[in-house]
Each structure stands twice: as C-alpha cells, then as structure tokens.
Specification:
Helices cover 76% and strands 1% of the residues. The protein is globular and about 50 Å long. The N terminus is likely disordered.
Length: 412
C-alpha cells in the first residue's frame, strides 16, 4: 500500500505500531490465562483477608488454649504440605482449569464450616476444606505461569499475581478489624467468611476461562520419578527454603496475639499493620521482577531471606504502634524476592512434570516445617519473645545455606 501527498513522491505506508496498552500488557506478562488466574487470586484474597489474620483470636474466643492455637498452625502447615502433590497431580492429569474449579468449590465449603463452628475443633474440620485453595491450587497457579510465559517474563508474571493477591491485604484486614470492633470477634469473623463464600462463586467464573494445553511426556511418572527429575540446585533451594519457612512458622500464628495482648494495640490497628506490610511488598514487586528477569534471581532471593530473618526480631524490639509500623515494613520486604524465588523454581522444574514438581517441592517443605508453630507455642510458654528470637536465628541459617549452595546458572 502506498500513500501520496501533494509535492511528494509516493512512499510505503508505515506498519501500525503496537498500541501502548498492548505493549504494557506484554511487559507485565498479561497473557489471557495469567489474567484469569490472577483475577481469581484477587477475588479469593479479598474475602479471606477479612478474617484469616484474626483466626487465632477467633479460636481463642471459641475456647482454644494457646497450645491448641499453635497446634492449629501446625495442622495448617501439615495440610499445606500433604495437599501440594495431589494438587499438582490433578493439574497435570486433568488440566489446570478443572483442578482449579474443584479447589475453589472445596474452599467455599470450608468457609461455611468455619463460620458455623460452635467450638474450636470444628474450625480444624473447616481447615481441611479451605486449604484446597490455599495449597492444592498452588501448583496449578504456578504452572499457568510456566505454561503461558517464556523464562524472561516469569518473574514479572509472578509479580502481577502477587500484586493482585496482595492488593486486598492493604484494606481487607482493616475492614475485618472494624467489623470485629463493631460486632465482636465471632460475628466479625463470620461476616468476613460470608464475603469469602460470595467471592468464591465469582472465582468459579474466572477460572473457567483458563485454556491451556498440557505439556506432553509426563504420563505415568510416579512421585519417585518426579523427585529424580528435580535438579540439584532446586533441591538445595528447597533445603534453604525449609529453614526460612521454619523461621516464619515459629511466630506467624502468634503475631496477632503478641501485638494485641503483649504490646496492647487494637484490632483495627493490627489490620492497618497488615495493610502497611502488604503495601510495602507491592511497592517492591514490579521493579525487582524486571531486574530479576533481566539480571539474575539469586541476589533478590537472598534479600528476601534476610528480611524473613529480621522481621521477628523487629517485632519484639517494638514497644508501641509506631514502632510496629516499622517492623511490618520489614515484614513487607520479605516479599522483595518472592517472585524471583518462584521464577527460579519454575526455571529449574522439568516442563512435562511441572505442576507435580512444584507440588512435591511444597509438600516436602510444608511437612518439614509443620512442627514449627507447635514448637513456637511451647517456646511462648517460657516467654512470649522466645519464639521470635529462635525464628531470627533459624532464618539466618537458611539464608547462609542458600547463599553458599544454590547456583542458578543451571536453570533452563
């Protein structure tokens, strides 16, 4: 095609350039399937974050002693572990979409059970169902990034997922805290659970849009075969990750109790702290992901592991709400290299058993750290600060192991 203008010779017309919106979408890794699962993560997080951070206090209101709350955290980590591989198996054998539909439906049942629980042991039954989304769905959500995006865009893809999962955390815990302040712990948490049920139905519509072809060559591979296909750098990353998540597990379920009971802040203030933590994480995601895709994953993973180690120490060093704000900024920095870590796992995993590799990785990690919350409860009985100090030391061990042993040059 040619164009003519008065006083000029004919010249070829310039090809239309990609629109600015299309270029931005490509830069952010916004492939259609990635958008669908990211939106699903946003919807589920919006409901869950109204009540999940207050669940230890909800258990306390239903009569659970402190050791039982610690045991609940251990049960959560244990289920997180044993659900991972079945979730990956379902995703690899039946497809990402069917697996996600099943997991969302099971989670909605769990929300209803927890909301109707007359006594604290019933909450544990609800946990068996809610973890279907939290844990079983995880390999599917990972695998969608690996299936849909090339290696040099995966950290960005994980960052977009993380942002959409964390945006609700900026406001939802504060809303949950206000509901609790207005109606009490039981009614406030139950109102948040009702919102989760409604949003789970919306999520079913979102994940039904996922359309991906499964990679060939993984048929009939057993769990031992999947383990044999995990490369050495991925196994070393797993070992260091176990130490880091043990650091987190020792104190995670006790953060709200320490903040409310020991330091003496209010539930709305704690919700605001969680929002500060999430906002800090969101501010880091996109620029760091771009660098991790262009340069290397490892430096940012080290930064994340250092923040995990520092957070529990920062919490017990706080004596007031303003000091806790700074501590939770450190908590937000724990996410600075999380997209890079996830992308590194995806880079190292063999494509034909991608979801099962992710499931096996998290199965081993979660089962290994399952005792952490219970041990944290026992340490709490000596002094509330004790599990936080132990967590900081364990985190530094994990950081050192990763720094000295993991070489990302073998990632494909």
């Amino acid at each position: 095609m040619t164009v003519s203008t008065p006083g000029s010779s004919e010249r070829p017309a310039e090809a239309p350039s990609p629109s600015r919106g299309a270029s931005l979408a490509a830069w952010l890794g916004l492939e259609r399937n990635v958008v669908a699962v990211s939106a699903a993560m946003f919807a589920m997080a919006l409901g869950e974050q109204m009540w999940r951070r207050f669940l230890p206090k909800y258990l306390e209101s239903l009569g659970a002693p402190i050791v039982a709350i610690g045991a609940y955290g251990t049960a959560e980590d244990f289920l997180d572990g044993i659900y991972q591989y079945p979730g990956g198996w379902a995703a690899d054998n039946y497809g990402r979409r069917r697996a996600l539909l099943l997991f969302v439906g099971l989670a909605a049942i769990g929300y209803a059970i927890i909301a109707l629980a007359p006594h604290w042991p019933v909450v544990v039954l609800g946990l068996v169902f809610t973890m279907a989304w939290t844990s079983m769905a995880s390999p599917s959500l990972f695998a969608v990034i690996g299936d849909a995006l090339p290696r040099n865009r995966r950290a960005m893809g994980f960052s977009v997922q993380a942002i959409l999962r964390r945006l609700p955390i900026v406001i939802a815990p504060t809303i949950g805290g206000l509901l609790i302040a207005a109606w009490g712990i039981r009614t406030g948490v139950r109102a948040g659970l009702a919102c989760s049920i409604v949003l789970a139905w919306l999520t079913l519509a979102l994940v039904s849009r996922v359309r991906l072809v499964l990679p060939a060559g993984g048929e009939g591979v057993t769990i031992r075969g999947v383990w044999d296909r995990l490369p050495t750098p991925l196994r070393r990353l797993l070992l260091s990750d176990i130490f880091i998540r043990t650091c987190e597990g020792l104190v995670d379920v006790f953060l709200v109790i320490y903040a409310l009971n020991v330091i003496g802040i209010s539930p709305p203030q704690y919700g605001l702290l969680v929002g500060v933590q999430s906002a800090t994480a969101i501010a880091c995601y996109l620029p760091v992901a771009r660098l991790a895709d262009r340069i290397a994953r490892k430096p940012f993973v080290i930064a994340t592991f250092l923040a995990f180690s520092a957070f529990p120490i920062a919490v017990i060093a706080s004596r007031s709400f303003p000091a806790l704000i700074l501590a939770f900024v450190v908590g937000g920095l724990r996410e600075i290299g999380e997209p890079a870590r996830k992308a590194l796992i995806m880079d190292l995993a063999v494509p034909e058993v991608r979801a099962r590799s992710i499931g096996l990785y998290y199965l081993i990690r979660s089962v290994a750290i399952a005792p952490a919350a219970f041990i944290g409860g026992l340490l709490w009985r000596t002094a509330p600060a004790t599990p936080f100090i132990a967590a900081g030391l364990v985190g530094l061990i994990g950081t050192t192991l990763f720094t000295l042993t993991v070489d990302e040059r073998h990632a494909g």
